[in-house]
């Protein structure tokens, strides 16, 4: 079923708005993937606040025109699924994790901060820990000296208490 002109304009506007809010775009070829597998991918994407869209490439080109993702408009060929995310690594992580378990999903590339990414760069971006993990690691590093100092002081106090008792 094809869309009429007003429906196409609505789709382009919706995707353009999504592209304006997003930091990352990941494109993957989904040829041969079953509907059930694609549904699982969409569920995982929703959990990570990633928007997946299957669009006609001409509509996708119009939607990303003038945005930071325009750098990949020449790569928009074939049956592609587009993943947009406001988090820098979420879209790459969702698509790359799914591609590990399903060899029919082939990462074609993407864009981040106005720079085009090839498939390897998308996989590298996906290997970066999430913002929450990085913040917890930073907090652990910041707490480490304080907790060490507290343990040393407690050991000194315990030792002084033993000396006073003797």
TrEMBL record:
Q: Does the record carry Metal-binding as a key word?
A: no
**InterPro entries found in the cross-reference section:** Ribosomal_uL10, Ribosomal_uL10-like_sf, Ribosomal_uL10_bac, Ribosomal_uL10_bac_type, Ribosomal_uL10_CS_bac
**Gene Ontology terms describing biological process:** translation
Per UniProt, which keywords does this protein have?
Ribonucleoprotein, Ribosomal protein, RNA-binding, rRNA-binding
Q: Name one GO cellular component term.
A: large ribosomal subunit
NCBIfam families in the cross-refs:
PRK00099.1-1
Protein's recorded name: Large ribosomal subunit protein uL10
Which gene does this sequence derive from? Answer: rplJ
């Amino acid at each position: 079923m094809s869309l009429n002109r007003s429906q196409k304009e609505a789709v382009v506007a919706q995707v353009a708005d999504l592209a304006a809010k997003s930091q990352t775009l990941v494109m993957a070829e989904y040829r041969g993937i079953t509907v059930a597998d694609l549904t699982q991918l969409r569920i995982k994407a929703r959990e990570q606040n990633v928007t997946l869209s299957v669009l006609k490439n001409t509509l996708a080109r119009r939607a990303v025109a003038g945005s930071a993702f325009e750098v990949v408009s020449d790569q928009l060929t074939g049956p592609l699924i587009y993943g947009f995310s406001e988090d820098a690594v979420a879209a790459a992580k969702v698509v790359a994790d799914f591609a590990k378990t399903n060899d029919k999903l082939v990462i074609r590339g993407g864009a981040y901060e106005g720079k085009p990414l090839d498939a390897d760069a998308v996989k590298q971006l996906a290997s970066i820990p999430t913002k929450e993990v990085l913040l917890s690691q930073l907090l652990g590093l910041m707490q480490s000296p304080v907790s060490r100092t507290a343990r040393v002081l407690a050991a000194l106090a315990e030792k002084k208490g033993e000396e006073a008792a003797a």
